[in-house]
Each structure stands twice: as C-alpha cells, then as structure tokens.
Write the structure tokens for this entry.
Amino acid sequence: MIRVTCAIIIQNNKVLAVQRSNFMDQAGKWEFPGGKMKIGESEEESLIREIEEELTIKVLPIQRLTPTEHRFNEEKCIQLIPYICTIKEGEVTLKEHRNMAWLDKELLIQLDWCEPDIPVVHQVINLGNR
C-alpha cells in the first residue's frame, strides 16, 4: 500500500483545492495537495515537504483527519492521510497543478474530485457539524 499525505489548507475560512495538470494521472480532476511518503519520514514531515515542493509555501499541520483507502486496481492501493493545515509562510505558487480554487467547504462537492479524495471532501464538509 502506498501511503500518501494530503493537506486541507484553510485560510480565511476557505479551503484550497488544486486541479491536476495534463501530464498527471487523472488530469483535470481536483485534489487536496500532497504526495507519497518517503521511507523514514513522518506523516507531518512528508506533508510539509510535499506542500513546499508543490505550492512553495510552508504549512503547519494542525489536525489529522481519518485516513481513507482507495484501490485503483489489483496492484495499486493508496492510504490517503489528510491533515488540516494553516499557511505559516509564503504565497501559493502552483508548480505541478494547472489551477487552484479557494472555496467555502460546502462548495467543495461541486468540483470533479479524484476518487481517493472524495471521502476526505465529505470529512471536510462535516467539520464543525458534529
């Protein structure tokens, strides 16, 4: 199983979503930014590294949400590990994605999400509604 961290970056009560570029699998689909954990990395270290590489910002992981699993096929299964984050430093610059949107959490469901991110979208929408 491939372990992948993703950041739910919240700023001014808006949530950041990024759109996959044409050279990525699932091109045009939306996702929470992040990536594969490296051997020996903690979840938080992976998240901070990936977000700095993809968006040129430093984030502070605040809260771990419930990880989800998604099987693409017989050989490929990922565990998506989401964290609520805030921006510590920098301005978002897209390095790998083709678009981004800052949305109210209730509007996230309107985007065409990558399948592994859909359960995380529902967790984010339900934040504070418990």
About this structure: Helices lie at 43-55, 118-125. Residues 18 and 100 are 4 Å apart (CA to CA). The chain is about 15% helix and 40% strand.
